UniProtKB/TrEMBL annotation:
It comes from Kaistella solincola. The keyword Membrane applies. The chain crosses the membrane at residues 12-32. The lineage of its organism: Bacteria, Pseudomonadati, Bacteroidota, Flavobacteriia, Flavobacteriales. Pfam families: DUF2459 (PF09601). This is Urease-associated protein. Keywords: Membrane, Transmembrane, Transmembrane helix.
Length: 225
C-alpha cells in the first residue's frame, strides 16, 4: 500500500512540475521577439493577422500575381457561395474544437483531452471576407513577393489533399457563418502546438516579427502594437 501511495504522490508531483514548467513557458517565451528580416525588395502584398480573442488566423488576398486561392478554396464551398470576396483568412487547429465546440459551454472533457495530448485530427478553417479593417484584433502586414511566396508555401503544406492534389473539404453544418468552410489538415494539435503556435510559425516563415514561441494570441499581437 505504501508503495502505491508513493507512486501516486510522485505522479502527482511530476504532473504539477510539468504544468508549472509549461505555464512558465506560456508567460515568458512569448516576450522574446524574433525580429523581422531586413529586406531591400518592395513590400507590395497586403496581409493581416486576425484574432477572435482566442484563435488567430493569417489573412491573405484571394487573388494576387502569385496565387488565386479560390482555385483550391472554392467559393461554392461556403453557404453564401458569393464570388466577390477579396480576402481569405486561414487558421489551423484541432478538428474537435472546430466542429464540436461552437462555444466554451460545449467543450467536452474528451475533446480537450484528445486535443491536449496529440490524440485528435486537425483542420484548416477558411473564411472569406469582402473587406478588412485594421483594429486591435486585426493588424496589417506588408510583405515582399518573396516573403509572400514563402508564406504561401507554408500554408499550402498544411492542407491534406486528395489524389488530384486538391484540399479535402470537411462536409459539415458546423460552420461559423455564411462565408467559411473547413478542410482536412496535417499535424496534431497539442498544448505545445496550438492554433496560435501555427500562426506564429507562419509569420516566421514570411520573415515577420514573431514570438520565440507562443500558445496564445497575445504572444503574437503584443509584437504588433
Amino acid at each position: 500500500m505504501k508503495k502505491i501511495i508513493l507512486v501516486v504522490l510522485k505522479s502527482i508531483l511530476a504532473l504539477i512540475a510539468i504544468i508549472a514548467v509549461y505555464m512558465l513557458f506560456v508567460f515568458t517565451l512569448p516576450y522574446f521577439e524574433i525580429p523581422a528580416q531586413k529586406i531591400s525588395e518592395p513590400k507590395t502584398v497586403e496581409t493581416f493577422i486576425l484574432t477572435n480573442g482566442v484563435h488567430t488566423d493569417i489573412v491573405v488576398p484571394v487573388k494576387s500575381k502569385q496565387i488565386n486561392w479560390s482555385d483550391d478554396i472554392l467559393f461554392k464551398n461556403t453557404t453564401s457561395k458569393s464570388t466577390d470576396y477579396k480576402y481569405l483568412s486561414i487558421g489551423w487547429g484541432d478538428k474537435g474544437f472546430y466542429l464540436d465546440t461552437p462555444t466554451w459551454a460545449d467543450l467536452k472533457f474528451s475533446t480537450a483531452f484528445e486535443a491536449t495530448f496529440w490524440l485528435s485530427e486537425s483542420a484548416m478553417h477558411c473564411t472569406f471576407y469582402k473587406e478588412m479593417k485594421e483594429s486591435e484584433d486585426c493588424k496589417r502586414i506588408m510583405l515582399s513577393e518573396k516573403q509572400y511566396a514563402a508564406l504561401i508555401n507554408f500554408i499550402q503544406k498544411k492542407f491534406d489533399r486528395d489524389k488530384n492534389g486538391k484540399p479535402i473539404l470537411i462536409k459539415t453544418d458546423a460552420v461559423y457563418g455564411k462565408d467559411d468552410a473547413f478542410y482536412d489538415a496535417k499535424g496534431s494539435y497539442s498544448f505545445l502546438n496550438t492554433c496560435n503556435t501555427w500562426t506564429n510559425n507562419a509569420l516566421k516563415s514570411a520573415g515577420q516579427k514573431a514570438a520565440l514561441w507562443t500558445a496564445a494570441d497575445f504572444g503574437i499581437f503584443q509584437h504588433y502594437k
